[in-house]
Each structure stands twice: as C-alpha cells, then as structure tokens.
Automatic annotation (TrEMBL):
<feature type="domain" description="Bacterial bifunctional deaminase-reductase C-terminal">
    <location>
        <begin position="3"/>
        <end position="181"/>
    </location>
</feature>
<dbReference type="Pfam" id="PF01872">
    <property type="entry name" value="RibD_C"/>
</dbReference>
<dbReference type="InterPro" id="IPR024072">
    <property type="entry name" value="DHFR-like_dom_sf"/>
</dbReference>
<dbReference type="InterPro" id="IPR050765">
    <property type="entry name" value="Riboflavin_Biosynth_HTPR"/>
</dbReference>
<protein>
    <submittedName>
        <fullName>Dihydrofolate reductase family protein</fullName>
    </submittedName>
</protein>
<dbReference type="InterPro" id="IPR002734">
    <property type="entry name" value="RibDG_C"/>
</dbReference>
Length: 188
C-alpha cells in the first residue's frame, strides 16, 4: 500500500496563495529548501495535482532546465518533474503532457485505488484536491514549509474537515530566511 504525502509552502497565517492566486509572497526558496523539496520529489513515485497547481507547475517546469539562470538543483528538479508519472484531476482541462494522465471523474475513488496499489509514496498538491483526500482520511503525511509572512486572505492550506486528524511530528527544521519546515504523520 502506498503512502500519500501532502506538502506545500504556506504563509504563517495558513495560506498557499494570497488573493488573486498570488504565490509571490515567499520569494525564491533558499538553495537548502529547494534541495529539500527536490529530495521529496525524487522520493515520490507518483505526483497528484489539482488543476490550479498543475497550471502553475506545467507553465514552468517542462522547460525549467533550459532557463539561462537555472541552478543545478533547478535543472534536476525540471528533469525529475518531467520523468515522474503524474495524475491531474480536473473536469476543465482537455489534455495533459509530460508523463501525465488526466482524471475527470471521482478523485477520491481514484486516489483510494492508487493508494491500494504497490509502489512508492505519492505526493498530492493543491488545496482543493488535498482537502478532498484529507476528508476521506487518505493523507498519511503532511509537510509544511512555513514562511514568516502574513497575507491575510487567499487560498488556505487546509479546507474544512469533517473530523479531527491527529498527527505525530516527525521532523522540524529551520531554513535560511526563517522558513520553518514541519513534517507530521497521521496517527491511525
């Protein structure tokens, strides 16, 4: 059975995007934090995306390694991103590329099916998609890179839940710029 991991950059007041889907509040991550995210991506055998996060990722990473100022870690991230199998959950997108499959039906049913398969961990991204997985009790691990910034409103990291989710902290680490990583496993 696969593990499902939800990880995002987040503001101190709990938002992954400010109003207008603005994600510029964090600025570029430090080299150390970027490397940490790269290591997490390398450890995932399948990436699950909601439409908005897919739009963001697919607008840059297919050619991120070809940018003139790309760092070695960014080059590796772009290559890994293209190579990693991906599933996008959307009823509005008609086509996806870069080793990606589109699912237009019941996301929770498909995630449940994927989680029951043999294989390495899966990552899930996007607040709406992750919220559905959380409400269904499917998320096994949470990874939050909390930036020291308050934006006041926007897209929250966590959507409303039907019941409590008890967690065990398994890692905490501080990165340059005051970004604090916390990683939790779901207590079952």
């Amino acid at each position: 059975m696969r593990k499902l991991r939800y990880g995002m950059n987040v503001t101190l007041d709990g938002y992954i995007a400010a109003p207008g889907d603005d994600i510029g509040w964090g600025g570029p991550p430090s080299d150390e934090l970027f490397q940490w995210w790269l290591d997490q991506d390398r450890a995932s055998s399948l990436a699950l995306y909601g439409r908005k996060l897919w739009d963001t990722m697919s607008s840059y990473w297919p050619t991120g390694d070809q940018q003139p100022d790309a760092t070695p870690a960014e080059i590796e991230f772009a290559r890994n991103w293209r190579d990693t199998p991906k599933v996008v959950f959307s009823s509005t997108i008609e086509k996806v590329d870069w080793n990606t499959r589109l699912v237009t039906g019941d996301a929770v049913a498909e995630i449940t099916r994927l989680e029951a398969e043999d294989g390495g961990p899966m990552s899930i991204g996007g607040a709406t998609l992750a919220g559905a997985a959380m409400r269904a009790g499917l998320v096994d691990e949470y990874m939050l890179a909390t930036y020291p910034v308050l934006v006041g409103a926007g897209t929250p990291l966590f959507t409303a839940l039907d019941s409590w989710v008890n967690l065990n902290m398994v890692e905490t680490r501080t990165f340059p710029g005051g970004v604090v990583l916390t990683r939790y496993e779901t207590r079952r």
